[in-house]
Amino acid sequence: MKTVRRFLTFLIALLVVGPVASLARKHAHKHPRKARAHVVRRHGGRATVSDTLPLSFYAPDTLHQGRATYYRHNPKGGACTLPGDDSLVVAMNGHHYGNATLCGACIEVQGPSGTVTARVVDRCVGCAQGSLDLSRAAFAHIAPLSAGRIDVSWHVVTCEQDTVMELHRTANSSKYWSSLQLRGHGVPLRSLEVLVDSTWMPLQKQAHNRYVSRNLPDTPWTIRITDVWNRTVVDSQLAPAAGRSVPLRGRFPSLTSTPGSLSLVR
After folding, report:
1. pTM metric for this prediction
2. Distance between CA atoms of 79 and 81, rounded to whole angstroms?
């Protein structure tokens, strides 16, 4: 008798639970589990982002509004991976950071107590659009540190302290793969190209402000640098060793100058 009851219980479970489990599987297939939220750091970030900001954004007479805070700047470099001991630096909000277009450029920030010019060296992931995270030294130029968070306006300017542009080849570069970085340019950059068989080959820019390629010819190179206003600097006979920088003979003029091209061939 017990055996019959057990058999009937098993049969009922098979007829009832089976279709329900099958339906659940179908439902799960149509509505997959949502991915967990990705936790990001306040500064940095390595994902490549397309730069879709309009040209008017970079105009010296275009004012942007936001809020500013301050942080302890790491002189070893932020998201822009730029070395240096500049104390007047800023981390740009993620929206305006784009694909590192502003890295190495300067902005002028107006606060309650004054104005400061700061170089963009980092990315502030937690900042709202238009907002900034300034180094303590830069923040102190426009408000007391005790203020903590302030309203600011800012616009893009030329880094007038930059006198020499450099092409840097990172230490892990080889003849099979190269990572290059431009330094001391002082303006927002659009592209870096290398002349290969009479054709300009653009290098892929990464969000950490380096241009990479697996197809570079042997040195010396001829390069063309273009800023966001399509002004160009061309230089040749460049042969940077891995981990070294070479100076360039061209330099972008101030943003108040008439846009044009600078062609310097050694």
Report:
1. 0.77
2. 5
